[in-house]
Amino acid sequence: MDFEDVLSEFDLSEPNIEQELESALKKLVKQSTNIPHPAQGQTFSRWQVLAQVSAKNLNLAKWFESHLDSISILQELGYSDLIESDKIYGIWAAEGSPNPVHELKGLISGQKNWCSGAGILDYALITYQNENQQSQLVLIDMHQPNINIDYSTWQAVGMAHTQTASIAFDQVKAIPVGQPNQYLTRAGFWHGAAGVAACWFGATVRIAEFLKQACTTKANDYRLLYLGEMSTQIHMTKQYFNYVATQIDQYPTESHELVIRILRAEVEKTAQLVLTKVGQALGARPYCEDRRFAELTADLTVFMRQSHAAFDLKRIAELTLDVESQADKEQLWTL
Fold first, then answer.
1. What percent of the chain is modeled with pLDDT above 90?
2. Whole-angstrom Cα distance, residue 84 to residue 124?
3. Can you identify the CATH homologous superfamily of domain 89-183?
4. E strands of 123-243, at which residues?
5. CA torsion, points 294, 67, 114, 124, in degrees to nearest 10?
6. Tell me, what's the pLDDT at 229?
7. 8 Å CB contact between 172 and 107
């Protein structure tokens, strides 16, 4: 499944980048109806698409991944009737607003932060904590009145073009999607989390290619050493994507939280290595003279912080202990 032709139509550079990004997203959405959902036998193909878009522009990938994830959530939870093929969807699940979203008689009020693509979505899936402190997912038509979008809180340099905002809802109609906590407990929650890692990986490989190209035109021992180190790590990470995708497709009703958390940690490790080694090999020049390189490295640094770093590693340890304590499970580390 190749989206290269679609992406080649758009000039995703200044000064008209935001207009071009929106046009590219609309075209991708129209072309995406055949992209497989996770756990339906073609999970790796889905991740290849996300990686391909991410290599072109991570701001665009952020929107597109959120759209695809939203469509898969609605499908998984049995709400396919709420999907309109020509509309743009997104998922906003960050909590922690000083005025949290709440529901009264089917109407949503309150503030939701970290809403990417705030001005371009037709429909948004958002979470809120109900009276029992359970996470409830709802679908909101973003063309309703009483929705105030505030872009002033997004001061990022990396991922600057994602139209991320804080949104205030004032008695806005919302359709419940699934049962309380079902958004978090469904198997697809972690399948979707792996899709985000595919975005990180696609951008990482594109950055690594700058050094690969430099080695074809002006190689030296140090550049080749760094390229060999990066290539080894990239190959290993790619193979782990294959392994995790196979596990998801073979056992679609399982969350695969452990292997997906490991995958995300592995991709972060690979990305950090590439960001460091490419910089060491090429020096300051591409950061200062190549806008594409400078933007991609800045964007990846921000996007990758969707990883929870030490918290994720702690959880991997807990899941490792849990798996190995069960006699009927294969030993995690045994060849």
1. 87
2. 13
3. Butyryl-CoA Dehydrogenase, subunit A, domain 2 (2.40.110.10)
4. 123-129, 135-141, 147-150, 165-173, 175-177
5. 160
6. 98
7. yes
User: pTM score > 0.85 for this model?
Assistant: yes
Burial 178-205 (b: 16+ CB within 10 A, else e): bebebbeebbbbbbbbbbbbbbbbbbbb
Fold annotation for 12-77+186-323: Butyryl-CoA Dehydrogenase, subunit A; domain 3 (1.20.140)
Q: What does the block give as tokens for 12?
A: 């995703």
**Main-chain dihedrals φ then ψ at residue 177, nearest 5 degrees:** -125, 110
Q: Where in the chain is the domain with CATH 2.40.110.10?
A: 89-183
Residues 98 and 70: beta-carbon distance below 8 Å: no
Q: pLDDT tens, 85-95?
A: 999 999 999 99
Dist. CA 322–CA 68, nearest whole Å = 32
Residue bearing tokens 């951008």 = 203
In the chain, list all ranges with CATH 1.20.140.10.
12-77+186-323
**pLDDT tens-digit map of 46-104:** 999 999 999 999 999 999 999 999 999 999 999 999 999 999 999 999 998 899 999 99
**How far is Cα 161 from Cα 61, in angstroms, rounded to an integer?**
11
Q: Nearest 5°: CA angle at 310, between 307 and 311?
A: 75
CA dist 148 and 135 (Å) reads 23
Q: Could you give the CA distance from residue 54 to residue 48 in angstroms, rounded to a whole number?
A: 10
3-class DSSP state of 224: helix
Read off the tokens for 73.
Answer: 């959530």
The answer to whether 170 touches 109, Cβ cutoff 8 Å, is: yes
Q: How far is CA 31 from CA 3, 8, 25, 52, 62, in A?
A: 8, 14, 10, 14, 17
Name every residue whose Cβ is closer than 8 Å to that of residue 302 and which is 6 or more positions away in sequence: 156, 157, 158, 159
Q: From 158, 153, 76, 72, select the one nearest 118 (Cα to Cα).
A: 153
